[in-house]
Design brief:
The strands form 2 sheets. This protein has a 7-stranded parallel β-sheet with strand order 3-2-1-4-5-6-7, with helices on both faces. It has a 6-stranded parallel β-sheet with strand order 10-9-8-11-12-13, with helices on both faces. By secondary structure, it is of the alpha/beta class. The mean pLDDT is 94. The chain contains 14 helices and 13 strands. Helix 7 (216-229) crosses helix 12 (339-351).
Length: 393
């Protein structure tokens, strides 16, 4: 096809700052800046809006406020997307319909079945393990029915190939170095005061909330070990707005806090902030002395790029996808199955912090991972798929 601007619909599963949602909005902004006509679609209950407004068009898909359970929530959101998209497709046409999650994938699969669209693109950031068969089925349908599958890491691309025979293409994540910087701002001190973060004491920051795949409970145990040598240390766990139900794990985490003698009220050493406004996040990174990401499973780990760009050392699990794109001295590595190893990595990151080394790592990674390059890669893959479709008799 020609090099004319593409009309692209990007579907995401939430209005909250999850990694896949951040990727969608950053990609949308970069595609928009490249001249494409982009519309972002996100489900929103009454009164909700996207945590960050992209420069392109946005369609908020009305959804229920309080579904009975996760299955009902997913089912109702799939139906909401189907109905909303059907109305949009009656008045406008898209060259590309691209979803970053299973909710959008199932909605688009249903529209394919009905003949409303010819195909769709799905990005698999990571796959979850569910105890509920219906959720597992929806997850599978969302990538198995896609006409083009993308992944943000080699780990998940190879997993899809070996487990499902799907030939996915790898695409890039990026980091906004204008937004994330080591340069202190007046907002940093104000945020510290508001959240009860002590300045001058080692601050361990974890983003993503309390979740099993984030390994938050084992990080808490590691933090308790760190306090033996750093008694003033503070753990800040931020974020956690998820569509999935993590309540059972959160209860176990709270029980462990009590067992270890921690509370989360100021001036106690553990702070659970919950979701924060988007404008607070750059300051939050700068308040940290180390960012901990001892995850058991990740799609990519955008937090690593953002932390390094903010001048903060990182502890990361020695697993893919981190090992795919990080050099040995970019981070302090940890075995995520061992609280003692995580504590050792935290001590190493704090004791060997080197601003120049972090800056070199951040510069190298930001040169490789940019949202502009990601948009160019996506546009090329979109056009190749369109050309292949048009060439078919």
């Amino acid at each position: 096809m020609s090099d004319r601007p593409l009309r692209i619909a990007l579907l995401t599963h939430s209005v909250n700052p999850r990694g896949g949602v951040v990727h969608t909005l950053e990609l949308a902004a970069a595609l928009h800046e490249a001249g494409h006509a982009v519309t972002v679609l996100a489900p929103a209950a009454p009164g909700q809006r996207l945590f960050r407004q992209p420069p392109c068009a946005v369609e908020l898909v009305p959804v229920q406020t309080t579904p009975r359970d996760t299955v009902e929530m997913v089912r109702s959101r799939i139906e909401a997307f189907v109905q909303h998209l059907r109305g949009m497709l009656a008045r406008e046409r898209f060259d590309v319909l691209h979803t970053h999650d299973s909710i959008g994938g199932n909605a688009l699969a249903r529209l394919c079945d009905a003949g409303d669209i010819d195909g769709f693109v799905r990005t698999v950031h990571h796959l979850d393990s569910f105890d509920v068969p219906q959720l597992t089925q929806w997850q599978h349908t969302a990538f198995a029915r896609a006409s083009q599958v993308l992944c943000v890491s080699r780990l998940w691309r190879e997993h899809l190939a070996s487990e499902y025979g799907i030939a996915a293409q790898e695409v890039l994540n990026g980091v906004d170095t204008a937004r994330f910087s080591p340069q202190a701002r007046s907002s940093d001190a104000a945020l510290a005061q508001r959240l009860g973060i002590r300045r001058g004491a080692p601050v361990v920051l974890a983003l993503g909330g309390v979740e099993e795949r984030k390994n938050t409970a084992r990080l808490l145990s590691a933090f308790a070990l760190l306090r033996a040598s750093n008694p003033q240390a503070q753990l800040v766990v931020a974020g956690g707005a998820s569509l999935l139900d993590h309540s059972a794990y959160a209860l176990r985490f709270r029980a462990l806090m009590q067992e270890l003698g921690f509370d989360d009220d100021p001036p106690q050493p553990v702070r659970l902030t919950g979701p924060l406004p988007d404008e607070d996040i750059p300051s939050l990174y700068r308040l940290a002395d180390v960012v901990a990401m001892p995850s058991l499973r990740e799609g990519f780990g955008l937090v690593v790029l953002e932390a390094l760009a903010s001048g903060v050392p990182v502890v990361a699990s020695r697993i893919a996808p981190f090992t795919e794109y990080l050099a040995e001295d970019d981070v302090s590595w940890a075995d995520p199955s061992d609280a003692g190893a995580i504590a050792d990595a935290l001590r190493h990151a704090l004791s060997t912090r080197d601003a120049q080394r972090i800056a070199r790592s951040a510069s190298r990674l930001s040169g490789r991972f940019s949202w502009q390059a990601s948009a160019e890669r996506h546009a090329a893959l979109y056009r190749a798929a369109i050309q292949e479709t048009e060439a078919c008799p």
